[in-house]
Design goal:
The complex is a heterodimer of chains A (315) and B (445). Chain A has 315 residues and is mostly helical. Chain A has helices at 2-30, 37-41, 61-73, 96-104, 138-144, 156-159, 163-172, 179-184, 227-242, 246-281, 290-302; strands at residues 110-113, 120-123, 195-196, 204-205. Chain B has 445 residues and is mainly alpha-helical. Chain B has helices at residues 14-22, 25-33, 49-68, 78-87, 92-119, 128-150, 155-166, 175-183, 190-218, 240-265, 295-303, 320-333, 338-341, 353-374, 379-406, 416-422, 433-444; strands at residues 38-40, 237-239, 308-309, 316-318. Classes of the chains: A mainly alpha (315), B mainly alpha (445). The interface between A and B is large, with 68 and 77 residues.
Chain lengths: 315, 445
């Protein structure tokens, strides 16, 4: 009965599924899905090699400082960094005094209250403060950016498929819309106020090209500030903001792996040595032949000889 | 349980004897995990995954308790508290990555454990209840994992909660009120987050309770083994300790190496980028997918694209959404009936030539189904998912009962020891190409 009912249920579901399959298949054949501009012109992120990549990766602090400079002078005009505090900059090699100065000179002030009147006010940032946001709230941000919301940058390399290479590709990927694209998809012309970028999901991004010319930022360490270089540096910096504990994680990981490999080798050796005894115990001859043992046990039971199994030889 | 030759617990010290007479706890441990539990001597590495699942449950409970000390279950604070754990709590990043990836590795261990059971017929008499309790654990795990994924309150958390609780609204009349009752509102919000946190903290301990029943019921007939032949003599068994504790020790080492590789070097591999964006009820992610361990079921849900209607009319008997939800629940619940669907008296797939082929077909089917569930819902993946979902139901509900009737199994070894003797080298083979050969020689003797 169980099996009969089960087969009814099984055939019911299978029949429905196959029916739906053939409906979809005929739809697929008679009306195959047309390619879209996104499916044909969207590009995979370019390769980006960072010092923090790989299991032994560590941050290149010079590069992080350069990336921070790009963020400070270019990105921070629109993009907030709510999860990172000025004090965290010590981790990328700034001294306490430098951190204090960076906080003090930050372009946006921290919301506060006037201690005498209680009215809303602002004050200069302190090392303990998180980076103040460029806009007071989402509405202000949208109003200033053609209704697009500049995302927070704290986690951006973890919050986008493709990570740091995606950020790097996006920043350097602005182009004029290819002529063939317009020929094939006349409706896909980049709307006014948006910018064509083949690395962006729908090809048209609201952000104007942020890095417009070489030398937009003057690096303190003398590195040549090409657009490529600035994009790489800011991507590296955003890897750090998203995962400040990356170096610790790699270091702990290596230690744990060494420990686990040694422990596993020891566990394997003890497993083998313990089981060597068990394997010796089954010898296919004489009284130790299990079939003989089974027969003798059976005989003892039938003969009514108490005492149960034979004495154990090992423990 | 026990076999006549199982070792009695003998306290070594006066204190031990005193304690044992009043509370025989050491006796219980000795009898269930120590030298007092005789285990078939021929278990292969697939028998390690029960212990590994138990280990991952403990890892999840321990890391979870510490994480709960730092987590705020508020719609405004949850996301930032998780990031504070990652940035400011001592070793918080390790706890969180261990917990998030621990869930994945818990499911990896449990899936291998389940498929081990499917192949070696572990659900058959006298072990039906062990199998069913295992399925209860699995269902509880799914509920726990789903609610845990909601807690960071990222985009995928929020929209996952929205979609999964939306299943209930597929049921006519009671569906929508039930969904609102479960969520505590019209959409996931503070009320839902708070109750999910509460239940996410509760359910692991319920799982631990059912695990005790699972192991208790295991110790009545004792462990199965790759031949599926019952234990007949002492020669067939070895005490759990030291033999299987040693083997499990090695298994634990290998498993932890893989776990640590992901935890330390690719911690976001199993996650979704979208979950690093704070929950936003106004912005739906481009494609909402659950965690990988739900993908096969998600594919079954999505496979139902046509309403069930009376032919040539527009009267809909069951809408596609309801069918999908019913099929998804059915795909798990049917496993409870497995002991009565597959009535073949032979347990082990090693001696069932037809069953073995269909078993590997099922494994491939579930993997493809999982892939379809994780892929975007393009026509190709939906159609592939439909074929695979149809096979899934046919396999369990139609094919298995038929195989049990028509199949002629290979001759079984006379005992576990006999199979070990004639095929020592295959002791650890997962499936028995070589075993078949050695059996032919055994039969010839």
């Amino acid at each position: 009965m169980t099996r009969f009912l089960a087969s009814i249920v099984g055939l019911f579901f299978a029949a429905l599924l196959m029916l739906a399959f053939f409906v979809n298949l005929s739809g697929y054949i008679s009306d195959p899905p047309a390619p879209t501009a996104e499916s044909k012109y969207r590009e995979e992120p370019k390769e980006l090699h960072l010092a923090s990549n790989g299991p032994f990766g560590r941050f290149d602090r010079q590069q992080l400082q350069r990336g921070f400079q790009v963020y400070k002078e270019v990105c921070s005009a629109c993009h907030s960094m709510k999860l990172v505090a000025f004090r965290d900059l010590r981790q990328i090699g700034y001294t306490d005094a430098e951190v204090k100065a960076i906080a003090n000179q930050w372009s946006t002030e921290v919301p506060s209250i006037n201690p005498e009147t209680g009215e809303p006010a602002t004050r200069k940032a302190l090392p303990a403060d998180h980076f103040p946001s460029p806009y007071a709230n989402e509405t202000a941000a949208r109003a200033a950016n053609n209704n697009a919301l500049p995302p927070d940058f704290s986690l951006i390399t973890k919050a986008r498929e493709g990570g740091a290479p995606y950020v790097y590709s996006l920043v350097t990927g602005y182009a004029t819309q290819p002529a063939e694209l317009l020929k094939q998809f006349p409706d896909s012309k980049t709307p006014k106020g948006l910018y064509y970028n083949p690395y962006f999901a729908n090809l048209n991004i609201g952000m104007p090209p942020p890095l417009v010319a070489d030398g937009q930022v003057t690096y303190a360490d003398g590195t040549k500030p090409t657009k490529e270089q600035m994009a790489k540096d800011v991507a590296a910096f955003l890897v750090w903001t998203a995962e400040p504990k990356l170096e610790t994680r790699h270091a702990v990981g290596i230690t744990v792996m060494i420990f686990l490999i040694i422990a596993t080798v020891l566990a394997y050796m003890s497993y083998q040595s313990i089981w060597a005894e068990a394997k010796r115990k089954v010898a296919p001859i004489g009284v130790l032949d299990p079939e003989n043992m089974a027969k003798s046990a059976q005989a003892r039971v039938e003969g009514g000889i108490a005492g149960g199994p034979e004495p154990r030889t090992m423990h | 349980m026990s076999f006549g030759w199982a070792n009695e617990y003998e306290p070594k010290s006066e204190l031990g004897r005193w304690f044992d007479q009043r509370l025989p706890l050491p006796r219980l441990v000795y009898g269930s995990l120590g030298g007092g539990y005789p285990v078939p001597r021929n278990l292969n590495y697939f028998w390690n995954f029960g212990v590994l699942s138990g280990l991952m449950l403990m890892v999840q409970i321990i890391t979870g308790i510490v994480l709960a000390m730092h987590y705020f279950a508020t719609a405004d604070g949850a996301f930032n508290s998780v990031e504070a754990i990652m940035r400011d709590v001592n070793a918080g990043w390790m706890l969180r990555y261990a917990h998030a990836n621990g869930a994945s590795f818990f499911f990896i261990a449990v899936y291998i454990h389940i498929f081990r059971g499917l192949y070696f017929g572990s659900y058959k008499a006298p072990r039906e209840l062990i199998w069913m309790l295992g399925l209860v654990i699995y269902l509880l795990m799914m509920a726990t994992a789903f609610m845990g994924y909601v807690l960071p309150w990222g985009q995928m958390s929020y929209w996952g909660a929205q979609v999964i609780t939306g299943f209930f609204s597929a049921f006519p009349i009671v569906g929508e009120p039930l969904r609102i009752f479960l969520l505590g509102g019209y959409a996931p919000d503070q009320a839902a987050l708070n109750r999910f946190f509460s239940l996410h903290y509760l359910l692991p301990f319920v799982i631990a309770g059912v695990v005790i029943l699972h192991i208790w019921s295991l110790h009545i007939p004792g462990s199965g083994n790759p031949t599926g032949v019952d234990v007949k003599t002492e020669q067939d068994t070895l005490p759990f300790h030291p033999f299987y504790t040693a083997k499990d020790g090695f298994g634990v080492g290998v498993f932890l190496i893989l776990y640590a590789l992901v935890l330390f070097f690719a911690p976001d591999y199993f996650g979704h980028a979208d979950n690093y964006i704070p929950a936003n009820p106004l912005a739906t992610p481009a494609h909402i997918v659950p965690e990988w361990y739900f993908w096969p079921f998600y594919a079954i849900l999505r496979a139902f694209t046509s309403d069930l209607s009376i032919p040539f009319t527009s009267i809909v008997i069951m809408p596609a959404k309801l069918l999908g939800v019913l099929a998804m629940f059915a795909s798990i619940l049917l496993l409870f009936f497995l002991p009565w669907l597959d009535k073949s008296p032979v347990r082990s797939g090693n001696y069932r030539p037809i069953f073995k082929r269909f078993f590997w077909l099922l494994v491939a089917d579930v993997i493809v189904l999982g892939y379809c569930g994780g892929a975007p819902a393009t026509p190709f993946y939906v159609m592939l998912g439909q074929v695979c979902a149809a096979y899934y139901f046919l396999h369990f509900l139609v094919i298995l009962p038929i195989i049990a009737k028509v199949e002629r199994p290979l001759p079984l070894p006379s005992s576990i020891s006999a199979s070990v003797l004639h095929g020592e080298a295959q002791e650890s083979a997962p499936y028995g190409l070589a075993t078949t050969a050695s059996l032919t020689t055994a039969a010839a003797e």
